[in-house]
Amino acid sequence: MRILAGLAVALSLAGCTVIPDARPPQDLGTVEVPEPVPADTALAAGVMPGPAIETMPFAGFDAAPALEAFRRSCDKILFREDTSGLTRRVDWQAPCGAATNWSSDPADFFRSQFETAIVADGSAFATGYYEPEILGSRERRPGYEVPVYAYPSDLERAWPADVPEEEREGRPPLGRYDENGEFVRYFERSEIAGGALEGKVPVIAWAADPVEFFFLQIQGSGLLRLPDGGVMRIGYAGQNGREYVAIGRPMREQGLIGEGTDYPTSMQGIISWLRDNPGRQDEILDLNKSWIFFRELDTEGPLGSIEVPVFARDSVAVDPKFVPYGAPVWLDMESDVADGLWIAQDTGGAIKGANRFDTFWGNGADARQIAGEMSSSGKAYLLLPKGTLARLKQ
């Protein structure tokens, strides 16, 4: 959502212009994620026809929310390049035009406008994410002491002097210029939590609980429940450029969670351990050097990578090199709750490779439970505008 990789949209925040890099990774180190297919794009991984679109069981699911999610995406996908190599902007004109005024059976919309395709062998793996709701305040007050920082004005991209010219490929790293004018890496989590940005970077809100805020940062967006009962929605603005560490892995290795302990290898298990061991809380959280900066949102839902609000059970995060943004995806997973139509509207730092999906479940206790436990294999069928496969064969 967060959220949000490869986003080429400038955001005005705290008096500076920034381009978010990526939604934070969703992998907590509590599940074994399959290795990505060794290919750069869907086209390189191989694409073949899937089942006839008429045979897809759309009737057994509510296609109306998926149609609405697709409509919301059209203003974006009609004007951006597809990095998967599968579609062109012109390919989306017909389905987007049809979606605008579609008033009959939503399932018929997908049958009439799309054809199914299988990328690589179609073997899929899905996790889940959600929009956390935690206690927060617009002003600092007793019990609300964790700063929610806006994007820092001194966080920028440049090449450090010790990187030779011949090695300067791709985007420069994130960092800052120190007092000597040298470009150095940005502050890591422990330094920021220790006050390195105090008085230097705008604070848009204050969170009550450092553990809950840590997990909100991992999700990349969330709701702050204010003392007056109101709600403030915050969304991903950028990241400090430091290493993301899925804390579940070292916790497992240290025997803190998992087999032989009282704490399951899940988000809930990690939180329980942190609550029961407050003396080591900072030590464990600081293993993850990444820190997420936020902006306030006034949207209906959190924003996905294409700057479109995402909604529960309709939006899925993908690797855009393997799934075009805006494309419908049919998932048939071992965990039946994830079965059905999803629209690719988001991405994430841990969502890499063919048929890797992160399903969005909204907010609230049920969403948190489902997302925290979602780890399922299955099959994925990509829906492409009709005629795409024939063109790719030429």
TrEMBL record:
Keywords on record: Cell wall biogenesis/degradation, Lyase
SUPFAM superfamilies found in the cross-reference section: Barwin-like endoglucanases
Matching CDD domains: mlta_B, mltA_like_LT_A
Pfam families: 3D, MltA
Catalytic activity as recorded in UniProt: Exolytic cleavage of the (1->4)-beta-glycosidic linkage between N-acetylmuramic acid (MurNAc) and N-acetylglucosamine (GlcNAc) residues in peptidoglycan, from either the reducing or the non-reducing ends of the peptidoglycan chains, with concomitant formation of a 1,6-anhydrobond in the MurNAc residue
Database matches in PROSITE patterns: PROKAR_LIPOPROTEIN
UniProt-listed Enzyme Commission number(s): 4.2.2.n1
InterPro entries registered for this protein in UniProt: 3D_dom, MltA, MltA_B, RlpA-like_sf
Domain Lytic transglycosylase MltA: 133-295
UniProt protein name: peptidoglycan lytic exotransglycosylase
